[in-house]
Amino acid sequence: MKLVLVGGYLGAGKSTWLRHQLYAGTFQAPHLIINEAAELAVDDAIFADRYPVTLLSGGCACCDGRDAFLTALRQLCDQRSRAAGPQGRTSLAVLETSGLADPGAIAQALRADPMLAFHLALSETIVLVDAQNGAAQLASEPLGRAQIEAADRLVLTKTDLAAPDDTARLIATLRRLAPGAAITADIRGEATALPDTIDAAPLPLAKDDRAPIQPVQITLPEGLDWAAFAVWLSALLTAHGNDIVRVKGTVQTPAGRLLLQGIRTHVQPPEILPDSDLARDGTIVLIGRNIDAERITRSLARFAAPLL
Fold it and tell me: Is residue 29 within a helix (H) or strand (E), and if so which, with residue range?
């Protein structure tokens, strides 16, 4: 069985890219493995109606969630071996990693497992890089560099939101970090051309000694007004600056069930999702540094109290 690993830093656009690739038929009849660092998962609800999905939440596949990840792969290999014919056999698994996962550590864990080393082939490691925020991430996040160094292919996303000269310098840096990796660019899943990089100089990469990034779950009050919540969330992200790297969750509103996603201080336009048995509405995940869950919960409760 082949395994394709899709990685990249928080907010790089892994789920969006994967959805487009599945729609285009890039991955034929895959079994999806969705890894979320937080206990609350969101991305599996996007895929579960159309593809077989194994959800691994509450830890990255490279460290805290490694045992669960390896167990899930062994079960897939066992099911494949027991299948009566070719039609019942899974030939491809696609792992969408947490944004905090190190693909190199995942590959090492696969090689060290005797059963998986025999039955499984890691065919490609694809790492997505956010063209808008990638330079800042590489300058301050050692994990972002480790992800890129492990890649067979790098996919630049959001190039329409970044200046061509900045993107060119980012590409020059990627080529220094992963000289053997192919580099392409996509905008919302559609392939696009790379800018000219002939005269581009790589970015300086400094050491980072800040606190580690961790996921925190926040339960929303029942009956919370969506408009009021949006105002509170915008104020929260502005107050915390770049400490909050990622926001994810699903929220029930008068307009329907909304997928909420944010990257640093930017909240993406909400996307309406179909109702699902996998719904975990009413809880959001904040991923970042120095996040005090109790303090944030009290802040939301005080803000929402007059509106409930």
Answer: none
pTM of structure: 0.75
- Alpha helices for 123-225 (secondary structure H): 134-140, 142-149, 164-177
- Which of the 8 DSSP states describes residue 79? H
Q: Please state the φ and ψ torsions of residue 100, each to the nearest 5 degrees.
A: -105, 10
CA–CA separation, 218 and 212 (whole Å): 19
Q: Roughly how many angstroms between the first and final C-alpha of the chain, as a whole number?
A: 52
pLDDT digits (tens, 9 = 90+) for 80-132: 888 766 666 788 999 999 999 999 999 989 988 999 988 898 989 999 999 99
Residue 298 in tokens: 């009290």
Q: Which two tokens stand for residue 14?
A: 């892994």
d(CA 16, CA 206): 30
User: Helix or strand or coil: residue 16?
Assistant: helix
pLDDT in tens, 180-201: 899 999 998 788 999 888 888 9
CA dihedral (272, 276, 282, 285) positive or negative: negative
For the chain, list the domains and their CATH numbers: 2-192 (3.40.50.300), 214-307 (3.30.1220.10)
Burial class (CB in 10 A: 0-12, 13-18, 19+), 50: exposed
- State both tokens at 230: 């949006």
Of 61, 236, 246, 41, whose CA–CA distance to 141 is shortest?
246
- Residues 223, 218: Cα–Cα separation, whole Å: 15
